[in-house]
Amino acid sequence: MKFSQVLMLCLWLRSTSTEPLLPTCACTHKTTMLHSSLMKPMGIVSQGKCFQKAEFPISGSRWIRLLEDEKTIYALRESLTFRPCYDRLDAISGGPCPNIISRSEWGARRPRDRQSLSTPVKYAVVHHSNTPQCLDKPSCIKRMQSIQNFHMNVRRWSDIAYNFLIGGDGNVYEGRGWDTVGAHVIGYNKISIGICVIGNYTEYKPNEISLNALKRMLSCLEFKNKVINKYVLRGHRDLGSTTCPGNKLYRIIKNWHHYYWFKFSSAN
Domain Peptidoglycan recognition protein family: where (predicted)? Predict the structure, then answer.
């Protein structure tokens, strides 16, 4: 077994002993031939077919093991895209995106200026606001306004720093939005989208509703083609000298697919 394969296996074992990995779905992005475990053709599926579970092979393999209706099938990696699973909610809601509160709804100030962001970008960067949490919509709106005022009045930035922020109420709040360069990571703002979870997560974890909103927001970025297919997930501390997004939140996202897989595979 090659060293890179041993490394991937050890990393997988480590991740299963700490935080559970984010369940992953695989969807075909073109007409795809499915194969049995003996690599015999089983039939063709069209673009857009999604499977509830996907198991990733040791680095270097072209084949992905898919589990659908208790049947084991295989497909070539290059014919699939990957994203978090949400219990078929996508089909009901018309997509994986969470509820997003617009700037006008939370009473955002007008930005002093803006620079267009060229998408899709390579990085999605997770932050925490290092402020108290907010647990309902009215308090989250006040927190959004407070963060924006601090960034514009004290930091002297043109707007709130992040592209999106996530409240403890489970809502996502529009910051600079989909197509505007943020001010959240020096050197990476033009090639990343910044998502901030409101709160301080040095000593405690975000609540489940916040984490679910973060997972859905990352899937939404893929759904809307705002990040590349093999985008790289990072915490702020990976790209700058900071403790952000806090030890507890950072430990969680390090076990998510787009963090650990693309850190050690040849896809990075």
Answer: 98-240
Q: Position 18: which residue type?
A: T
Residue 231: count other Cβ atoms within 10 Å of its Cβ: 21
Beta bridge partners of 116: 180
CB atoms within 10 A of CB 29: 14
Does any domain span residue 7?
no
Strand partners, 65: 55, 74
Q: Are 242 and 116 in the same domain?
A: yes
Lowest-pLDDT choice from 33-37, 48-52, 168-172: 48-52
Higher pLDDT pick, 201 / 76: 201
Q: Do 160 and 39 reside in the same domain of the chain?
A: no
Query: What are the pLDDT digits (tens) for 109-125?
Result: 999 999 999 999 999 99
- Domain containing 60 equals 24-84
Residue 49 near residue 30 (C-beta atoms within 8 A): no
261 inside domain: no
**Per-position b or e across 236-263, b if 16+ CB within 10 A of its CB:** bbbbeeeebbbeebbebbbbbbbbbbbe
Clarify whether residues 111 and 218 are in a common domain: yes
Closest CA to 121 of 209, 202, 45, 222: 222
Q: In whole angstroms, what separates CA 94 from the centre of its chain?
A: 19
> Judging by DSSP bridges, how do beta strands 172-174 and 164-166 pair with one another?
antiparallel
CATH number at residue 166: 3.40.80.10
Supply 185's token pair: 């990571």
User: Which residues are CB-neighbours of 89 under 8 A, at least 6 positions away?
Assistant: 96
Residues 146 and 41 in one domain: no
Cis ω on the peptide bond leading into residue 98 (within 30° of 0)? no
